[in-house]
Structures are given as structure tokens and as C-alpha cells.
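User: Continuing from earlier, I have the next pair ready.

Assistant: Great, send them over.

User: Here they are, in order.

Assistant: Folding the first of the pair now:
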Amino acid sequence: MTTVLGLIGSARKWGNSEVLARQALLGAQEAGAKTDLLRLSDLHIEPCLGCMRCAIKRVPCPLDDDMPALIERLRAADAAILAAPTYILGPPGAVKLALDRMLMMIPYLDELAQQPKPGLALSVSGLSPWRGVALPFLITFLQGFGFTRINSLACYTPGPGEVLLDDALMARVHDLGRQLVQGPTISPPAANVCPVCHSDFFTLSADRATCPMCGLQARIESTADGIRLAFEDPTGYEGHWTPRGMRQFVEEWIIPSGQRFLAHRHEIKARRARLEF
């Protein structure tokens, strides 16, 4: 039986994020799945030290917290739903703390490549102009921890639990949960939105736009209707956080940067002396 793990990125119990996650899980249950629910704020997750031991030496993280247990829950799930509010234009700290430890997945890259699993991301904000970048970060979380984004949705509702009054949104989220189990179909993005991670903010250079979340590029074209982003074909695209993209990042950047640091560490230490006070 398919197991769907619902992750709540909010510390508010029965807030809009939890309500939406539960609604999607109900849809998954009706499609025959077994479901589980986990609040990230209930876990003890320490800030990443940036030591790179997990990536370079492939040894367990030196931090003694709940991150290994979270990874095991994610590895055991066949699909995942991540729902979180938008705090100051981005995801809450509980989501970011776990996301910052993503390199702990390096030992499982072969496993992730062989077993792609569907994921659903749900961001919540009060107003559309204040949606910020929470949704792309939630999608990055799912991708980095082994789930392919099948669907994602930015939801707008103000007060705690008020999403329950939006029958149309509740019905849509229920259907997305069901689709996660029943032969999911990837939802197409809107115009000028990255087709890989649904980001709608880009870095610009000459006539090119680059998605900072996954690295996909697009040509900037001027049409009668305004600016259009003509994206590269995303079919088979190996973005930053696919297993292949992560492996390339580690082997071509992280490991060489560690070797470069070791070669210069004595000079760095000497130059650091004048800054010690």
C-alpha cells in the first residue's frame, strides 16, 4: 500500500497549513493510501554547521538531533505533501532548518535516482502580493529529499483555519491529494513561471533569464502581448536538486572547494590573526 507523509511547516496547530495538508491526505486516503502526519516544529533540528562532513567525507552529521529520524521518515514514504505558511516572504524557520541539512541525503542519491516519488507542495499566505518565495522553497525541499514535484499550489487565506470556509479551494486540495496516488499528472505552469519548480522570480543577463531555484534558463522575448520567457525543454532536465544535479554539485564544486581550502588554510589562518579581538 502507498504511504503518503504529510509534513506541516507551521508551529500553529490546526492552522491553515495543517488543515490543507489534512485535506490533501484525506484525498490520498480515499485513493487507497495509508497516511501519516508530522509537524516539523515538533522535531529538534539544529542549524547546519556547514562542516560538509556529510558531503565530502560521507560520514554521519556530528549534530545530535532529530534530522536522521526525519530523513528515515521521508525515505520510508512513497509520496509526500508539504504545507507551510509564508513568514516574511519565505518559509518558516522549521522548514529552512531542515532544508539547510539537505546534503545529508548525499549517501542516498543512488536510491533517489532509482525510486522517484511524487510530491505536493502547498504554500499559504494572506495576500497574493505577499506570497514571496515560499512555494519555490517548499518545492526545493521536496526535490532535495527525493520527491518529484507533481503538483504545487499557492493558497491565499488570512485568519487561522479560515481556509475551511473556502469550499472551492478545499475541493481542489482534496483532488490534488487524490491525484498524488492515482496516476498523478504534472500540472502545467502559468506563463513566465519556471516549469520545473514553479518559481516566478529570475536573474536576468542580456536576453536570458535563469531560475535561481533549479537553474533552468529561458530566452527573454518581446511579443505584442509583452515580455515572454521561452524556457528550455524541461523534459529530462537535471536541475540543481535532482539526484544527478546534487551529485554534480558535490563532485564538481563542494569536494574541489574543500581541497582548495586545505591547500590555503595556513595562509587563511595567518591573515585571520589581525581580525581577532
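And the other member of the pair:
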Amino acid sequence: MNRIESVRIQGFRSLADVALTNVADTTVLIGANGSGKSNFIRFFEMMNWMLRTRRLADFVARHGGASDQLFGGSRNTPRIEAELSLRTDSGRNDYRFALTHGHPDRFFFTEEAFRFNGEDFESPAEWQHLGSGHDEARIVEAAQAKAGAEVNHKTASVVVHLLRNCAAFQFHDTSHSSHIKQKSDVGDNRTLRTHGGNLAPILYRLEHEDVGRFDQICRHVGRILPVFDRFELEESYGKISLRWKPKGMDQTLGAHLTSDGSLRFFALVTLLNLPDEMLPDVLLLDEPELGLHPAAVALIAEMIKSLATERQVIVATQSPLLVDAFDLDEIIVTELRDQRTEFHRLDPNDYKQWLEEAFTTGELWQKNLLGGRP
């Protein structure tokens, strides 16, 4: 299984200097509002913009400019530095970069490098450097280089592939103008978009290519939404919109007549039940519990645990019900001290007495025994 093994981030928003090593197949970030959970997710969203579309500048512009991405602003922190280790069956692939603030309120690379270490390495391999002064990631070009080039295009290709397959999903926007409530191109069905806006094309594809999986998704939705019968999806002139049929009714309902929590639940259930070829290697979920019934939260937790046997899943949450589904060694507590995010791992031995008395992990968090509470 391809996975993130470790990550260190310096200077990105509240992540002044944080590191995670030995990242588990399931990692659950808990903490108070504003403690930095979502900033960790947004970092990987930025990486996706850097490497999938090579539009780092667009990400920066959409999020308030380069200075707003820096811890305490550009006067306090001049650059973002990051290093990631990515594990494959062949060994470990490392990628690091530094983004420095420049005029007018933009980023440029002052370092970018990568390397590969096989399973039997005794000392780390030399870094392959990609220069400085560029506005977009050069490792994408290195990955496309021909054999015999100065850089190892095979390793670069693996790094780019792995990081492009780290997808941060957030289905919070269910407003009138949200993507999920608009018509979509029926052909936009390769993978579920991180905002869930192409949910209808994805379900339409499953209904026609994997009807057993489509029916399974409908059954899962019906477990929480008893009135739900099945999705009713019809293509018209290359477009399709999300509609579903209630039990005992001929009329179908569109997304605009569906509750926000139900729409988010539709998207989550679909994402967590996609076939292998439609899933990223690493899924990052930002507060998936938002607007869901407690029974729905419990079901989503079950699905996350099941999926984590095949994919790495990182979840940022404030839900004790969701936390209940995971062990203490899978939980990272985030806390804000002097405006800086800190990560803390939990030692199950420290909570042995509480666990023997049948306290759940969510209850321990609610009682502020784990930290991470306001």
C-alpha cells in the first residue's frame, strides 16, 4: 500500500513547526476550534494544486495571498519549508521544498529536491536538486524527462504520482450555488472531486458499470435515511444532476430539496465505497461529521476503518462519536500554544485505568483527559 510515512511542515499558517512520523494507516486529528487540524488538511490541498494542476499561484490567490499562508505573515516568517517521506513496496521516496515570499505577495521556490532509498539502504541517498527561483514545481517536469536525463525521472514520477494521489475532501459547501447542486458533465466521472460536485456523474457511472456497488451505496444511505429508496439519475444533452426517489412516491427530489446533512452523507458514503481504481492512495477528510445524525457518524466511522485496510486515511474531527471508533494510538491531539500548532501522540498505557473502567476514547476526550479541548 502506497502511503505517507512522515511529514514535517514549517511556516504554513499555524503550522510553525510540526512533524508526524510513522503515520498510521488511520490517523485521527482532534483538537479545539482553530488548533490547526484543518491547516494540516489545507497543506495537502496546496500540494495537490502544486503537482496536479501546477497552479500554486491560483491556490495562493484563492486563499488570500502568500503572506496569509505564512505563520504570522511574511514579516514574521519568510518561507514555508516541508519534507515528506512516501512509502512504496520498493522503498522510501523523499520530497522537500521551500517556498519563499516574494513581491508582490507571491511564492517562489528557493529549494526543491527528491531522492529514493531502497529497502536495504544503509545510509540515505543523495538529494537530487531541482534549482531555485521557479514559480511552479519542477518535479513535474523531472517526472516527464526522458531516460538518461540528469535527474532520475523514475523516482520523480513516483513522487509526483504519490502526492497527486493524496486528496483532501471537504463536503461542507451545500449552499444554493454549491457544485453539488448544479448540473455536471456526465463524463466527469473518473474520480470524486474533493468538494463532491460531480457526485451525480460518479453515481451514474457506478449504476451502469458496477450496479452491485451502486445498490450497496443506496442500501447504506437507506440505513440512515429511512425514506430514501434509490438515486434516480438521467443524462440529458451531456449533463446530469443529482436526484433521488423517496419510498412510496413517484416524484423524485433534487439536491435543492435535500437537507445539507443528507447531501454530505450521500457524498461520504459514495466516496468511502468507491472501487479501487476510483480512489486516491491517501484520503484526508476534514470534519466529515458536520451536520450528520449520530447514527450516520457511527456508520461513517465503520466505513473509514474498513477502507483503511486498503488506503491510508487521515481524518480531522471534533466528534466524540467518531473518535470512539478509533484506538488511542491512532489519535493525534492538536493544541494551539502561542498561536503555534502542536501535535501530541497518546500513550495507551497512560489511560489504561480509564479504559479498563469501560470509558471510550470519545468520553476521555470530552472529559479533557486527552487534551485538545478549549
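Worth noting for the second one:
The radius of gyration is 22 Å. The first strand starts at residue 3 and ends at 10.
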